[in-house]
Amino acid sequence: MAVDPKAYDPRNLHLPELEVMHSGHLACPGCGAALGMRQALKALGDNTMVVIPACCWAVIVGPYPYEALKVPVLQVAFETAAISAAGVRAALDAQGKHDTTVLAWAGDGGTFDIGFQSLSGAVERNDDIIYVCYDNEAYMNTGIQRSSATPYGAWTTTTPVEAPKAEPKKNMVEIMVEHRIPYTATASIAYPEDFIRKLRKAQSIRGAKFIHLWISCPAGHKSEERYSVKIARLAVETGIFPLYEVENGVHYTINHEPAFTDVAEYLRLQGRFRHLKDEDIETIRRNIEWEWKRLRAKAEMGRTLPAPPPPVRAVVEEGEHEPSTE
Asked: How many angstroms separate the CA atoms of 72 and 64, rounded?
């Protein structure tokens, strides 16, 4: 399908003028994570509390007592972004501050791997938080080590050129979908209007919301800073990273039909893929085709299925007792 180039002209973007992020942050040049946070807070506004575990953003935000955000920030342990955000939500609710948004902002290592147990527990309980995983596909803050978000064929310091990652990337979005939370979505820093719309939609929904944000990382991807947005856009337009959303674990909406640009163009701009052979690139092409067939099948199935039934909760009236087990 042909893509209208006007759709990606920055002059045609309609973004909120609100700025909740200061200049002077500590991100690397071309950092997609910095751009993503700026977009996120434009969407959510200044009545937001941000929970950040150990990750690049724990450094980017700045050293105490300085910080680059104009909202309260709580820095927590690597594995506790989701449960800490749930605790903040409970504390705010106890104070009657129900209109304050709680945003957990964690990298792929703290989401796919180290923080998965905490995240799964929080969404299983349907805690009322927005969880954004900004995914640069490796543990970049600690030296570019492999995570389960690292894609097939990528170089990292723990998957050297002689033995690049042989396993596919974990599909974290579908894992969250299987928790049947109210809202799950993907987003990209190259499509800010789509990202902002999804955040505002998440903000309007009670319960657990998960957004998987693809970001570029010049240091870890071995790419030029000037290509950060271009690479993020190619991740979408090649079909590697689909933009879609899922409501109640059932109803899929594909938000953007990619041009299906040859994935070789995306790979060529990143040194982490420079070692790939023609047969490796062909494997990636076939995988993209297969993943899109699966996604389209799920979207079609979701059109015919009703929302899942709500959980049945046993309510014991005052003065009654639990049924005897004797």
From this structure: 12
Tokens of 229: 């947005």
Plot region of 180 (φ>0 → left; ψ -120 to 50 → alpha; else → beta): left
Q: pLDDT digit string (tens) for 114-161?
A: 999 999 999 999 999 999 999 999 999 999 999 999 999 999 999 999
Which residues, listed in sequence order, are joined to residue 131 by a DSSP beta bridge?
104, 210
User: Using CB atoms within 10 A of its CB, is residue 128 exposed (0-12), middle (13-18) or buried (19+)?
Assistant: buried
Distance of alpha carbon 192 from its chain centroid, rounded? 13
pLDDT at 5 (0 to 100): 39
Strand 73-75 vs strand 48-52: parallel, antiparallel, or unpaired? parallel
Record the tokens describing residue 258, joined without a space. 């990619």
Cα–Cα distance, 55 to 103 (Å, whole number) = 15
**Which residues pair with residue 238 across a beta bridge?**
none
Specify the residue for token string 């209109």: 99
The tokens for 67 are 């910080």
Q: Which domains does the chain have, with CATH numbers?
A: 29-304 (3.40.50.970)
Residues 207 and 184: their CA atoms lie apart, in Å, by 11
Q: Which residue has the tokens 């993503």?
A: 36
Torsion sign, CA atoms 312, 244, 19, 110 = positive
Q: Which residues pair with 253 in a beta bridge?
A: 245
**CB of 53 within 8 A of CB of 80?**
yes
How far, in Å, are 108, 118, 138 from residue 55 at the CA level?
9, 16, 11
pTM above 0.85, yes or no: yes
